[in-house]
Amino acid sequence: MRNEEKYVYEQGQGVFGSGGDVIALEGFITDITDLHKSEKALKENEEKYRTLFDMESDALAMIEIKTGKMLEVNQSFIELYGYSREEVLRMKNTDFSAEPSETRKTTRSKGTYIPVRYHKKKDGTVFPTEISARVFNYQGREVHIAAIRDITERQRLEGQI
What DSSP string runs through 44-60? Predict the structure, then answer.
């Protein structure tokens, strides 16, 4: 017999005699070891995804195509735009754009590469970005995952050449 850790779910109740004493216990025990292992693996994968997502140096955003609603962003996005994660997740992608009608049109057309688009930070600063995006289904919704890069420095250097 292997000495393996098991996880179980127990449910039961006492059976009482006429004098009020417990005379028996009835119930069942279910082995949930496989469920526990699956949940642990899922949690580890979620942590790995979050770590990779947040470590990316480009600002990453998951955007619902139909509405433009911001579904998720990484730490680089928060630092670039100056909003808290909670603020961002109440906003739409057009709220970050200095060209909202262009952003709306590109989102709905499911554009995957935008060489220059002007965005704005919380403090009102407008800056140029380069955006690469991919479209996929997430929880029954069509979404963009967009990698946004501030190209202010690149434009400044190109202007010097």
Answer: HHHHHHHHHHHH-SSEE
